[in-house]
Amino acid sequence: MLKKVMQGNPFLKNVSMIVGGTVFAQIINILVSPVLTRIYQPEMYGVFSTFNSLVAIFSISASLDYQNAIPLEKEDEDAVHLYFLAFVILIVVCILFGIVFLFRGDILLAKLNYSNMIPYKYFLIIGIFLTGLYNILMQTAFRMDAFQIIARTKYVQCFFSNGVKIIVGLISKSSIGLVIGAIIGQSAGISNLYRILKSSLKDFRFSGKKIKKLMIKYKKFPLFSAPNNYINSMSVQMPVLMISGMFGSDIVGYFSLANQIVAIPALFIGTAIGQVFYAQISKIKNRYSNQLKKECLRILIKMTILGGVIFLMISIFLPFLITIVYGEEWRIAGDLARILCINAFASFLVIPLGRVLEIINQQQISLIFNTIRVIVLFGVFNVARIYNYNIYQALLGFSIVSALFYILLIMVILRQLKINTEVCI
């Protein structure tokens, strides 16, 4: 039955391939994590988490988001020019990082309380370049409908990354194994995606006029899309970076493991429900705005009950399970996970409702919300720094304030639906 549905719906088939590859990779990462936590100490895990966060922030729009215009371009020649433009911008950005790190890197990282990153400063540039290149090639693959190859890259990245982490970790007993594993895993995915583009580059003839024309045509990507992506990425990565600067690498290691575990319900259950819900509400746009609000309230009630049960069970049993699965030295991660459940529960509720703003064409609300949230959460951590709060107090403040923001977002969405309903009536 499922096979027939997939064959009759190419879009659903393509989505299932991408989601399936991502989910499979996450499952493998979760299964491998107990092995990694017995090879690497919490401090090593913390160094790697800080490294990953910095790479994620600076690579998200390292090509000024011109790569996201590649699938939109109808002409193949223009699409290749966009690839070239995005690639050149990425190289320039990485060179600038290289110059900064070469002359002022140690001082800059020390002032930001990231002294643990000084030995890995050039690895940061490699990570930014490879992640940025992967994002460019990913958009190229989307344009060519190479969904099966994209899914395959997820498998390849997962196996190479985890394999190298285990092998190098057993040899070196340092966080370099985690860093090299991440870099090699990213490289493995790039090689598969590059084969898709290779044939298009054979007859490519560079045109400066065409580059200039495309830069103007898609100027909104660097002006609006890139800043929004940086803000979104900062909101996700901020806790790791702030905790690293305030409490050190070992606490970041505990936090990262705890955060990874409490995010599992959102990753597998919340995302699946969100995708199905988005498909349903997309069909009732405009004509049935009152019905749209009722559907949102219905899913909110269901998510509240489901999430309440899940996160109550996590907060009760997780601290004991962590010591069994990951080892006694990771007990602190279980205590932190209990605190993070507050934020994770509120985030879980927002997942299906978040894309409602797209349905009612109010995306600017998301940008404003994320910007204010980042500023306020940054303030929360700075208050914790000023008053010398311990990690439990600081994380409790973060979790409560972040959860309140998610609840506020839900209220704003429901308010917008009410306004939308009144306009339609």
Question: How would you explain this protein's 3D organization?
Answer:
By secondary structure, the protein is mostly helical. Helix content is 84%, strand content 0%. The chain has 16 helices and no strands. α4 packs antiparallel against α5 (121-143), α4 packs across α8 (208-217) and α9 (220-247) crosses α10. The longest helix has 37 residues, at 289-325. The radius of gyration is 22 Å and the shape is globular.
Return residue spans where pLDDT drops below 50 for at least 5 consecutive residues: none
User: What is the rounded distance between the termini?
Assistant: 41 Å
For the biggest sheet, the summary is:
none
Our Rg estimate from Cα atoms comes to: 22 Å
Query: What does the average pLDDT come to?
Result: 83
How is the topology of this model organized?
Elements: H1 2-8, H2 10-39, H3 42-59, H4 76-111, H5 121-143, H6 147-172, H7 176-201, H8 208-217, H9 220-247, H10 249-262, H11 264-282, H12 289-325, H13 331-353, H14 356-359, H15 363-386, H16 391-424
Characterize this entry briefly.
The protein has about 425 residues and is an all-alpha fold.
